[in-house]
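> @MW can you paste both from yesterday?
MW: sure, first one:
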Amino acid sequence: MLQEYFSALIQLLAGFGFAGMIIVLSVIFGRRAKLRKPTEVPYECGNVPEGDGAPAFFSIKFYMVAILFLVFDLEVVFLYPWALGFKDFVLGNAAAFGAMAAFIGVLVVAYLYAVGKGVITWHRNPKPRA
């Protein structure tokens, strides 16, 4: 019974061992920072801060496209196995076909909603909405 979990245990031990080894090596070989109060310098991943520290502003469109990419990219995770087994499993099973048709329907509605809201259009000066 336990033989089935042996490979998972080995992988878990290898992962923790690798993480521990990286931490130990960074302590041994890493450069030490100059002594100063941590509250005096903003944190920038261990690098010396450059510039005035003002954040760079991005349009919300970048974030919206990133979220849409994740949503529609994750659909491929569900659609790919379904497409591979379409002939064998789905054509003979009406419930599986109905479930996937509903899933694709929800994705189409989400896509049409995003297009309707203008998330996918890239105009420099968008027209104000009424």
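MW: second:
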Amino acid sequence: MVIEQERAWRAEFPITNTWNYLNSCSLSPLPRSGRKALEEFGRQWTELGGRAWYDHWLGEYESLRVDLAGVLRVNADEVALEPSVSAALVSIATTFDYTTRPKVVVTDLDFPTDGHTWLALADRGVEVEFVRSPDRIGVPLEVFERAVDERTALVCTGHVYYTSGYIQDVRALAEICHRKGAALVVDAYQSIGALAFDAHASGVDYLVGGMLKWLMGGPGMAFLYSRAEVAERARPQALGWWGVRDPFDFDVEHLAYGRGARRFEYGTPAVAALFTARAGLALLDEIGIGTVRERHMLLSQRLLDGALEQGWRVRCPTDARQRTAIVTLEHPNAQAAVEVLRASGVIADARPGLIRLSPHYFNTLEEVDAALEIAAPLREAAPV
């Protein structure tokens, strides 16, 4: 039964016929359902032209919002659809008054956008303080406790660190921030779709993420969650004509912000991305986030244990409960190592000093073992 189930999961991803694909935390491969969705988008565009907006696409847009609200366990009005996480963060950044609280706290493990967004506001008086990870895997809560003070406007950090897969306790971090009068902005690109998550229960003020990784929805579509009371008082200065209350009134002379998180939206969306995004979410719903999590723990632990047996130095938690499916191996020339893996049929990715592997639920233990066998000779050039 298990083998039949695995085969059905794999059959949804034709790439598995050609490659040992261990790179879903960068870009999940296109599922068959996603390709069918793209074909349906093409048919509607071909046959209906502009009429497709009113007959189909506006409905798809709102349906995606509802789908994402279900994944995050929030209300639809608390979700905005975005062209990218970078755009979402820029919009959020414009809502803060940095006059009395000029400090923004980011970690040295966070994705570059999480720092660049605020560094670009230096001429507005924003001061970015980078707190340091003691082990390059995670950042203890006490480090944030010391950094957040009466001058801190917000903390911007990842739910899961992209180089280590470490899962942060964002609920505890939100408590620290709020106790000291600061907001918490969470980059959840590496977590949503890999972990069950209740944004309401987490206490975060803002959360951003996208479709192209664990959610299997491809590039071109991201999302922003804003807690209802936070969204209603926010006045983003970076917005577009879809971020107003009635965009199809075409009123150029007046600005009435959209309801809730909708006020953070920009302009005309990438419609093709709507279709693939909904297909990915439907697949996730069919498999179940609990099943995904169990498979991630099983596959990544096999990968990590095998790497340790070979003598690799890993830069991720050794306990599967503390990380997603990301496993990182230290290597002085990671990009060259990734190219060697690719030449042998394994798709992985490189980050500075790291080979990063990330199986998804459709991968198998046999694929993990095969990748380890190919990686073994590369260990000779790795640090000890």
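> thanks! The domain at 39-283 is CATH 3.40.640.10 (Aspartate Aminotransferase; domain 2).
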